[in-house]
Amino acid sequence: MSQSRTEQTESKSTTILSALGSKYSAEILCAAGTPKSAQALSNDIEIPIATCYRRIQDLVDAGLLTCEGRQLSEEGRRTNIYRRTLDEIEVDFSDDHPQFSRKRRTEAKNRIQDQLED
Questions:
Q1: Basic and acidic residues bias located where (predicted)?
Q2: Domain residue spans in the chain?
């Protein structure tokens, strides 16, 4: 593997592990199985909204959470809606660098989940 490719892999690994290692990140990912705003996630998990926004940004940067769009809040403001991008992640530390295997969420699963929530 080239030096540049190795550095990219290490950087991505560090980003993912850092995001997963932060307090509340796992709870946010579990709660974001259906599209939710940062305020809804904050309320569901009972954490301060500023902390929730920081964890959301870390998870988005790591590719574990995505912004699915925007909707109007109860106050009439446009707010981002987030959903996790995977259902499972496995970390293998047996090599020189962590290796990740992920079970990504499919669009079909998202649509089914959305229908069950309605």
A1: 107-118
A2: 3-107
The sign one gets for the Cα dihedral 27, 11, 93, 86 is: positive
- In this structure, which amino acid lies at residue 13? S
pLDDT tens sequence across 86-109: 888 888 889 888 888 777 666 655
Residue showing tokens 């996630």: 41
pLDDT of 22-68, one tens digit each? 899 999 999 999 999 999 999 999 999 999 999 999 999 999 999 99
Outline where the chain has alpha helix (H): 3-21, 25-31, 38-45, 49-61, 107-117
How many of the other CB atoms lie within 10 Å of CB of 81? Answer: 17
CATH for 3-107, options being 3.40.50.300, 3.40.190.10, 1.10.1370.30, 1.10.10.10 = 1.10.10.10
pTM score of the predicted model: 0.76
